[in-house]
Design brief:
The protein contains four helices and eight strands, in the order αβββαβββααββ. It is an alpha+beta fold. A six-stranded antiparallel β-sheet has the order 3-2-1-4-5-6. A two-stranded antiparallel sheet has the order 7-8. Helix 1 runs antiparallel to helix 4. The protein is elongated, with a radius of gyration of 20 Å. It starts with a helix and ends with a strand.
């Protein structure tokens, strides 16, 4: 694997590590509006939009979508790097609890670190147009 690819894997792994292990950022925001994207082949997507902070919107479930009203003042916990919503609270009431996605970041982080240090090598097979292979 060439040096640029290994450096890119190391950089992405470091960003994932910072996002997973740094403290959450908490902002007090006002609920601006709600949007719903209807999909016929799978469940609908619900998004709550905010005003007055760094986070523009969060993808939420049906329960949170209905629990929050326009104009509500909420505290939103977000990750530092990728700004993913980790929790939403209205006063002392937890509307959306913490998610376990931070622990799921360990898997791609480990694979990227292994590739960056050369423990996993990806080689291009020139006789095959399918792509990259483990070696």
């Amino acid at each position: 694997m060439d040096v640029i690819t290994r450096l890119a894997a190391l950089l992405i792994a470091l960003l994932l590590a910072i996002d997973a292990f740094s403290a959450e950022r908490t902002e007090t925001l006002r609920v601006d509006r709600h949007t719903r994207l209807a999909r016929w082949h799978q469940g609908d997507d619900y998004r709550v939009h905010f005003a007055g902070g760094r986070v523009d919107s969060c993808e939420v479930g049906w329960t949170v979508f209905n629990a929050l009203l326009d104009g509500d003042i909420v505290s939103v916990d977000t990750s530092r790097v990728f700004k993913s919503c980790d929790g939403i609270r209205r006063g002392d009431e937890v509307i959306s609890g913490g998610r376990a996605h931070r622990w799921l970041l360990l898997v791609p982080m480990a694979v990227l670190l292994a590739a960056a240090f050369g423990w996993i090598r990806f080689e291009r097979r020139y006789d095959d147009e399918q792509g990259w292979w483990f070696s």
